[in-house]
């Protein structure tokens, strides 16, 4: 039974907001929030007053006006008569494209290098250390310019593909690597292709489900089921059967030299490739250190215990070490993904038209709407960064260790 001296039984008073530790932190947070809102309101009103004095006003009507400039790499239809808003969307998609490709390649290279840095082979270990130190300590802008210069200087121009050895200059008569960019086959989707795509997606889901099942059986019953061959069968067999049953609805359009340039296929400019490669190998050096630190954070006794059970080194790494190391690897990995995305704003150095090059570059200079363009630029990058953080945090919560 509570007494008058019991803190829980006392009636609430305003002094408790400061003196009671149960409410003190909320009081300070509320005061800080109010001060922040007042500061932002003051800065906003000051900005509006200064603009009014200068005869200016904030307006986004310019987004509906014709852009009047071309963009060399687009994922959606765009012409110089499209609106500034359309140009901004092209820039957003180009930014997301290089960020997506860069994160995938950086993760693959970073994980491989991080694991090899702990190899028992002295030569491999030292080579990986040299890679990390070189790429981590040189600014990424320099790597972008170096790779771009190599592409332009080393790779042949389309006119060099002419002659008797023109076909031999292409890889498998399907890929062409030129100083202007890379050409690859383009899929052409016909009637029934949606069924093939649906089967392919279902196969991928089946692979993940099967791998989770094999892991569950291994942990719960100690049964070691095959993984590689069933995964390859699920990847190729269903989609191949669906492809022929539907009458081969997906064809390939190959690039071909017509006139002074290649026509057809998928074209990726050398600016996109150089930016993609530079951001990947630069960020991979940091990811490798994160992976190495995560692996070293796992107790050596875990490895010894797994080896005593007869597990081979590869399975020890995949089933014992890496799952425990992910709790250390994922949080800094999120930061590296964000850094890669923000570093993509250096794309203008090689002429790749990303969000900074369109909305924060040509559109800003043509319209003179610096405040509006910069605010939109900040908003787009904020949304992209928050999206990456949200996705990776969901994955982090899914793989983190749970105490029993």
Find the CATH topology of one domain. Answer: MetI-like fold
Give the mean pLDDT: 84
Question: The biggest beta sheet, please?
Answer: 3 strands, antiparallel
Number of strands: 7
Low-confidence segments: 1-5
CATH C-level class of one domain is Mainly Alpha
Distance N terminus to C terminus? Answer: 35 Å
Q: Roughly what percent helix? A: 55-70%
Instruction: Report the portion of residues in β strands.
Output: 5-15%
SSE-based structural type: mainly alpha
CATH homologous superfamily of one domain? Answer: MetI-like
CATH architecture tag of one domain: Orthogonal Bundle
Q: What's the total helix number?
A: 12
Structure description:
This protein has 404 residues and is mainly alpha-helical. Among the domains are: 7-53; 89-165 and 269-365 and 380-399, MetI-like fold (Orthogonal Bundle). 64% of the residues lie in helices and 6% in strands. The chain has helices at 16-19, 21-53, 84-116, 122-136, 140-154, 193-221, 228-245, 270-297, 300-308, 313-343, 355-367, 370-399, and strands at 176-177, 181-184, 186-189, 250-253, 256-258, 261-263, 266-269. The strands form 3 sheets. A 3-stranded antiparallel beta sheet has the order 1-2-7. A two-stranded antiparallel sheet has the order 3-4. A two-stranded antiparallel ribbon has the order 5-6. Helix 3 (84-116) packs across helix 8 (270-297) and helix 10 runs antiparallel to helix 12. The radius of gyration is 28 Å and the shape is globular. The two termini are 35 Å apart.
